[in-house]
Amino acid sequence: MDLMYLHVVINPEVKILDYSKIIFPEACESVKGFFADVPRYRALELKGLDENGKQFSQYATGWLARIIQHEMDHLNGIIYTDIMDRKSLTCSCWNVVNDRGGRVELPYGVY
Questions:
Q1: pLDDT over threshold 80, residue 82
Q2: Domains of the chain, CATH where assigned
Q3: How confident is the model at residue 103, as a pLDDT?
Q4: How many angstroms separate the Cα of 4 from the Cα of each of 43, 46, 56, 96?
Q5: For the stretch 75-101, what's the b/e string if a residue is b when 16 or more beta carbons lie within 10 angstroms of its beta carbon?
Q6: pLDDT in tens, 29-60
Q7: β-strand 10-27 against 34-49: which pairing, if any?
Q8: How confident is the model at residue 16 (pLDDT cuts 50, 70, 90)?
Q9: Given 13, 45, 51, 71, which residue is catalytic?
Q10: Residue 89: CB partners within 8 Å, gap ≥ 6?
Q11: Cβ atoms of 49 and 94 closer than 8 Å
Q12: DSSP state at residue 101
């Protein structure tokens, strides 16, 4: 995993460069407390405008390609649960549930 600084991308477009997929566990703040295996394309090109309105293009593979696809899905009204392997959906907080005898709170809102 490489360090990636935050970028503004206006009107992002993704072009898939490698149609083979990698399946890896994925989670999201939109569905707190769970994760599941999600297939994502291996490599892509991200095009768009930067914060100054200049066109840019970026090649992405691995973790960065996964993140870009995840965020592009959000822009298209899709969350990972729409494309996950349904049998792999897992609660990520079982240790807390067990430690507290089933008494837990999972807040889903603005704090």
A1: yes
A2: 10-99 (3.90.45.10)
A3: 78
A4: 16, 14, 16, 31
A5: eeeeebeeebeeeeeeeeeeeeeeeee
A6: 988 889 999 999 999 999 999 999 999 999 99
A7: antiparallel
A8: very high
A9: 71
A10: 34, 35, 36, 81
A11: no
A12: T
| 69 vs 60: CA distance, rounded Å | 10
Residues constituting the chain:
111
Inter-residue contact 60 to 46 (CB < 8 Å): yes
Residue that is written with structure tokens 């991308």 in the block: 9
Enter the tokens of residue 94: 């079982």
- Residue 71 annotated to the active site: yes
And the tokens for 19?
Answer: 């149609």
Pairing mode of beta strands 90-91, 55-61: unpaired
Coil/strand/helix, residue 74: helix
- End-to-end Cα distance, the chain: 30
Q: Which residue has the tokens 């490599």?
A: 43
